[in-house]
Amino acid sequence: LLLLLLLSSNKMGGLLSLGCFAGQAACCFGGMACRMCCRSCPTSTTSTSTRIVYAVLFLLSSIVAWIMLNPGIAGRLDKMSDYTGTIHCRDANGNLGTNCPDEWGRMGVYRVMFATGLFFLFMAVVMIGAKSSRDPRSGLQNGLWGIKLILLAGAMVGAFFIENHFYAGWGWFALVGAFFFMIVQLILLVDFAHSWSESWVAKSEDGSKCHSFGLLLASAIMYIVSFVGTVLMFVYYTKAPGESCGLNKFFIGFNLCLAVLATAAALHPRVQDALPTSGILQSGVVITYTTYLTWSSVSDAPGPCSDVGGSSTATIVLGAVLTFVAVGYSALRTGSASQMGKLGMGGTDDSSASLLDESEGDGDLDDEEAGQRIVDNERTGVIYSWSFFHLVFAVASLYITMVLTDWNTISTDDDTGIAFGHNWASVWVRMVSSWLVVLLYLWTLIAPIVLSDRVFN
User: Fold this and answer.
1) 116/66 Cα distance (integer angstroms)
2) Which of 145, 209, 345, 417 could tie 88 with a disulfide, CB 3.0–4.6 Å?
């Protein structure tokens, strides 16, 4: 934030206001040292307030990275070329040059999110093996926000002095990390689809006409959006002069086949007997997401078949929104009964733990005399795995890097400069992820039938 303000303005008043706001936010949601200054905050728990702050911190870091794409900011980043090296790009006539504000903006995204990922990776390593808030490391996990903000800001500033060639290799690492986050994201998606369907089906069976109508409406909207998206992809991404666009046709057609398969499986009588809450709402969520991934892939595929303007910004916005939702949901669903609990996000609690559930665990009250009731609900055991929680955020930083840069990868074009461009590796990463989404969803439908001797919640 400091670097951004220095680049965009010389007015220190904005910096002071931002520091005041950040201090107040840290006081309201932060650790033990800050709670004394915010008497107006409602009753909370240490696990709740901590996760909120980290989620907000990740969101703010992503916003800073996004602002780096602003032409005014990106145009000034090329002043760092004396320290980091040049960036090459081609103009409208195809001539190679070094006047590349868009590329410098993407490089700014790489630098900001590299520092963010490094920060969360550091926290993940430090918190390995933490079992309760009695661990000395709980002070770092649940407090010391000022020190952590300085550490993160310092890492961001330092990242701008690393040579560009380093990020050429880091870009491929980010691509692999983005794939792993998409695996986490698809597990969250399937977990969300089942939870949503179970909740609304139960209320519908209790006589709620609103939820019955909502089930039909939500399902219809998702199927319509997926169908229209598929048609538009066939119209815009399968035709090019002198090109057959066979791979794009395969991607779109195969996604359509998987959509039909998922719908048929969700409505199969044997699946309905094993999972009464299964239906088109769940399959609609999955199909909509796979259609988005297919669109994101074919729109970025190298070659003339994907040379359609106007889709880049929409892809970036949708990808960023989905990431923020996934990260937030990973904090909401941290109990061992949820899919994230089975991944390691769950702590010692055997039931699904909600971020907003203030009765988690047997907590003790802290700072009640200060005007705010703070419950330390992790004295006997952590509600969520601190280390894995930070690891998810670290990998999410890699995914945001790829989303905000429109899945461009960096290549070294000579001894002094680098260049950005799309390649098939990023396309296949997204397509394989979309197929894994459907396979995972189908397994959740088939598993209770195949493994009838096991109990599936």
Assistant:
1) 13
2) 417
